[in-house]
Amino acid sequence: MFEFDINHTDGHARHGVLTTPHGPVATPAFMPVGTAGTVKGVTPTQLRATGAQMILGNTYHLQLRPTADVVRELGGLHRFTGWDGPMLTDSGGFQVFSLGKIRKIDDGGVEFQSHIDGATMRLDPRIATDVQNKLGADVIMAFDDCPPLPCEADRVEIAVMRTIRWAAECKEAHARTDQALFGIVQGGLDLRLREHCATQLAKIGFDGYAIGGLSVGESHDEMVEVLRPVVPMLPADRPRYLMGVGMPRDIVAAVAAGVDMFDCVLPTRNGRNSQAFTATGQLKMRNEKHRLDDSPLEAGCDCEACKFASRGYIRHLFNSGEMLGPTLTSIHNLRFYQRFLSRIRELIREDRLATIVNEYPIAAMPHAASDSE
Amino acid sequence: MFEFDINHTDGHARHGVLTTPHGPVATPAFMPVGTAGTVKGVTPTQLRATGAQMILGNTYHLQLRPTADVVRELGGLHRFTGWDGPMLTDSGGFQVFSLGKIRKIDDGGVEFQSHIDGATMRLDPRIATDVQNKLGADVIMAFDDCPPLPCEADRVEIAVMRTIRWAAECKEAHARTDQALFGIVQGGLDLRLREHCATQLAKIGFDGYAIGGLSVGESHDEMVEVLRPVVPMLPADRPRYLMGVGMPRDIVAAVAAGVDMFDCVLPTRNGRNSQAFTATGQLKMRNEKHRLDDSPLEAGCDCEACKFASRGYIRHLFNSGEMLGPTLTSIHNLRFYQRFLSRIRELIREDRLATIVNEYPIAAMPHAASDSE
What we know:
- The structure is a homodimer of 373-residue chains.
- Chain A is an alpha/beta fold and 373 residues long.
- Chain A has two domains: 3-262, Alpha-Beta Barrel (TIM Barrel), CATH 3.20.20; 271-364, no CATH class.
- Helix content of chain A is 38%, strand content 19%.
- The first copy, chain A, has helices spanning 44-49, 59-64, 68-73, 76-81, 93-98, 125-135, 153-173, 191-204, 220-230, 248-257, 266-272, 311-319, 324-349, 356-359, and strands at residues 3-10, 13-20, 23-27, 29-32, 55-57, 87-89, 101-105, 110-113, 120-123, 139-141, 180-185, 208-211, 240-242, 261-264, 275-278, 281-284.
- The longest helix of chain A has 26 residues, at 324-349.
């Protein structure tokens, strides 16, 4: 039911296909994030038109509201959201540590207060797996201990030990054969701990392997310094997923290191904040300079927004507080990411991934880069 | 360039076609409102899919932001908004009196403060026509004096005299032959004043005639008592447009009185407020009873929302503050209105408009009706 075939490599970079019960995913792949059961502001029809192949849902958010039981009653996450393609749910580990007010954490799991209504909740390997079994995504994630960076060495070591033990418990708890289970490698910036975690997870054996605990406060260079040695430690015949990443240059560096899958809120979050991705940088659409600009967000883009909307119109929508501004800019950004990944796959097939920066100068720009408005 | 052909009548009700430079409109027609250059939360592609034929833009809002000059620079309202079908702009009269803080009103025009930034603005027949010439809709409206109801008799009489004089000035100022100009009949609930206004406007001669100053505080019965005698006073060979109306039963009563065109914010405003129209009443989508309901908003509806979204999902979207809730419910409501008007046209062709209430019980319900949640 799950296969992963690598069709071509360019250095460490891989181009392949992940087969899931809801269809194939060409890799390297970028998954838009549908946190609470919707990629914000975009219908499933619009989302498909962006070229998205696989999308992500957040266990933490969905369990708080409407709860996994409600999603299951309403037919599971695919039926619930109207997305009939491949889906992945994270385990809630990252969100518990970044959003929740933690009340108690020990080797068994985490007790926290909901950021929505303050209710006391618990996530542990068994619960996180059970919730994801109920949600019914094609790929589910092991529950991990994911402390934010920078982090004291002792805490990182504890996180790695817990993450390994919890991963084994998740595999034990996993009750559906139509869902793949991925393990998550933790270890912060400590290569020794990363290697230990990767080795132990591979011994347990998972359908795929994720790198967690990056894009949580470290610099781009620090991230790359972890990725280059750590990615090759992951089983080469399984998909490798870098969680929560990221900006175009992060993605290119990670692909070059051998990563196959990505997810990030940037296209939609930035879109809601009036920032539009282009190959040459980000545009701030509230800016005065777009007032009389009849050109689309990006010349040559085939997204629903660029087919009709001028920059001047989109600026007007944001200045008027119209929902259509965030929606159109999110659609454009989602399409931008899919075109970008599609081009990355083509260039891998042509053994010239390194030339991506010629067509996408943004892939050489630091995180904060945007146009000089 | 503009034609209006009546193909069939059923009592006073008429079924016909209004031909505009941007295509035909089957009447009776319902125009969704795109106040600031967007039907809120809906892309032009989605709007077309609801069956909308003609949409409305508000001169008052567009002149405040981004201004008619900007819209003209960006190619006019069709190009600006991406709506390539027929469009109508109102004259700003109604908005000035309902939204603006009026500073000065006299027989020449109105000075008011913008509700956005407090800037002093002026609208008069010449400015309102000039602005609409710049916006470039297919149908533009004469600038009228539209006091809210209830209103003192003297004030209504002044409004009628001004409205007639202003209408003549608008016709004089109108500078584009590719835009039809409609006059607006005022007169509140005073049939003598309504008749005077209708007669005088017909003498001046317009491409179509609107009834303004209704749906501004009076009861349904009061509105119908005005419509029945006043609509037949309007030239029978020109389209008749009832501005700002309304609920299904208002529309049916007005169609039966011989009205051809309608506009109203209800489908989108109620949609944003989680109220979904169905033939049997309105649903409140935040209600607990929808939590585990896997059925669509309305059985048999072919809108983008009903094709995939359960009531339980839409309730979740509203409860989670997701943009997709307002968008999907607006799309459904817009489609509901278009299906409703389409059925009205069919029933007129079959000489049995009166049976509409059998299929649409909501068309017999008072304004506030909704389900008993």
